[in-house]
Amino acid sequence: MFKVLKTDGVARRGEFHTPHGVIQSPFFMNVGTSAAIKGGISSLDLKDLKCQVELCNTYHLHVRPGDDIIYKMGGLHKFMNWDRPILTDSGGFQVFSLAKLRKIKEEGVYFNSHVDGRRIFMGPEESMRIQSHLASTIAMAFDECIENPSPYDYVKKSVDRTTRWLQRCIDEMARLNSLPETINRQQMLFAINQGGTYDDIRAEHMKTIANMNVDGVAIGGLAVGEPTDVMYRIIETVIPHAPTDKPRYLMGVGTPSNIIEAVYRGVDMFDCVMPSRNARHATVFTWNGITHVTNQCFETDSLPIDPECDCPTCRNFSRAYIRHLFKSGEMLGGRLAVQHNLYFYNTLMEKIRAAIDEGTFEEFRNHYSPLLASKLV
C-alpha cells in the first residue's frame, strides 16, 4: 500500500495507494472539520488548490449532523462530493480539548457535548463505528491525548491503555469491514503514538504499535505548546522505531518550516488548521515569508499577495483589493486568502517532493526553512 520511491537522507518520497486513489508523499491534508474548509471553500475548489487528501473531524460530525445521517447519505465522499481520500480523526483530541467534564475509564470516556451539553460516551468501538459510518479512507485509532506536561507514571499508564484501546480498534474495524452493509469495506486504520515528552515512553510505544496490524502510524500529542526543539527531539526519538513500509503522520503540524523540518526527520503526512485559520485573519504565507494583508502599505498595492504564486487568488486579485475586502468585512476577503494559503501549502509539498526526487532536499531545507518562518511587513 505504501511504497518509498526515493530517499534523501532520512526524508522519504513515496506513493500511498488507498481505496480512493494514490497519494503522492510527503503530503499535507487540508482540514475540513465539519466536512468543509472554513472560509467558503468547496470540494470542487480543493481540486484547483492541489489538495490530495481532506481531513474531517469524527467528533464534530458525530455531534452534528450525526454520523447516522451521513451514513444514510452514502458516506462522507458522497455527502461532500469529494472523490479523493479522506482521513477522519478518532475524536480523541476533541474529547480531551473541548469537554470540560470528562471521566476516563478502561471502557472509554464519558463527557458532555460542547454543543448542547448532552452526555456522550466514546470508546474504541464507538469511534470505529462512527468512522465506519462516515466511510472515510483512513480512520484513526481512539487514544487519550495527554496534557503536556503530565506526571511520568500517569503518562505510562495512559499509553498502556491507549495500546489496549488500539487492539480493540483493530478488532472492531475488522468486524465492521466484514459486514455487507458497511460502505467502505476497505477502510484503513492508523495507530497513534503517545507518551508526552518522555523519550523512553515514546520509543517503547512506537516499537509496540509498529508491530500491530495497522496501515500507518501517527505521532500525536505534539504541537500543543511544547517548545519546537522538544517536538523535533521526539520525532527523532520515535522515527527510527516506526515501520519503514508504512506512512508516518505527524498530527496537527504545522508551520511551513515545521513541515520541512519534520520531512527532514522522516515524516510523510501532515495536517493543520493554520493555513485556513490564519488566512481568515488576513495572515498569508508567501515564498519570502509571512505577511498580513491588511497592512497599510498594501492600500494601493496592485501586486498579488505573492508575485511568485499562481493560485486562483494571485492570478486575479491585488493586495489592495483583498485588503479592502477585509477592511470592509466582506466574506470574499477570507475566501481569497484561504484559497491562497491552501494552494501555498500544497505547492510547498510539491516542491518538497521534487527536491527529494532530485536529491537536493538538504539545500531546499537550508534555504526555505528559515525563509518561510520569517515575517515580512
UniProtKB/TrEMBL annotation:
Q: Which InterPro entries match?
A: ArchSynthase1/Queuine_TRR, TGT, TGT-like_sf, tRNA_ribo_trans-like
Query: What are its E.C. numbers?
Result: 2.4.2.29
User: Which reactions fall under this protein's catalytic activity?
Assistant: 7-aminomethyl-7-carbaguanine + guanosine(34) in tRNA = 7-aminomethyl-7-carbaguanosine(34) in tRNA + guanine
How the cofactor is bound: the record states: Binds 1 zinc ion per subunit.
Chain residues that bind Zn(2+): 309, 311, 314, 340
Q: Pfam families given for it?
A: TGT (PF01702)
Cofactor(s) essential for the protein:
Zn(2+)
Give the top-rank taxon of the lineage listed in the UniProt record for this protein. Answer: Bacteria
Q: Which residues form the active site?
A: 89 (proton acceptor), 271 (nucleophile)
Residues forming the tRNA-guanine(15) transglycosylase-like domain are: 9-368
Q: Provide the residue positions that the database annotates as binding substrate.
A: 89-93, 143, 194, 221
Q: What class of enzyme is it?
A: transferase
UniProt cross-references to Gene3D superfamilies, sorted A to Z: Queuine tRNA-ribosyltransferase-like (3.20.20.105)
Is Mitochondrion among the key words of this record? no
The cellular component terms of Gene Ontology attached to this UniProt record, alphabetical and capped at eight, are: cytosol
Gene Ontology molecular function, alphabetical: metal ion binding; tRNA-guanosine(34) queuine transglycosylase activity
Start and end residues of each stretch annotated as RNA binding: 252-258
Q: Which UniProt keywords apply?
A: Glycosyltransferase, Metal-binding, Queuosine biosynthesis, Transferase, tRNA processing, Zinc
Q: How does it assemble?
A: Homodimer. Within each dimer, one monomer is responsible for RNA recognition and catalysis, while the other monomer binds to the replacement base PreQ1.
Relate the protein's function as given in its record: Catalyzes the base-exchange of a guanine (G) residue with the queuine precursor 7-aminomethyl-7-deazaguanine (PreQ1) at position 34 (anticodon wobble position) in tRNAs with GU(N) anticodons (tRNA-Asp, -Asn, -His and -Tyr). Catalysis occurs through a double-displacement mechanism. The nucleophile active site attacks the C1' of nucleotide 34 to detach the guanine base from the RNA, forming a covalent enzyme-RNA intermediate. The proton acceptor active site deprotonates the incoming PreQ1, allowing a nucleophilic attack on the C1' of the ribose to form the product.
UniProt xrefs under HAMAP family: Q_tRNA_Tgt
Family from the record: Belongs to the queuine tRNA-ribosyltransferase family.
Q: What is this protein called?
A: Queuine tRNA-ribosyltransferase
Q: Lineage, please?
A: Bacteria, Bacillati, Bacillota, Clostridia, Eubacteriales
| Name of the gene encoding the protein in the UniProt record | tgt
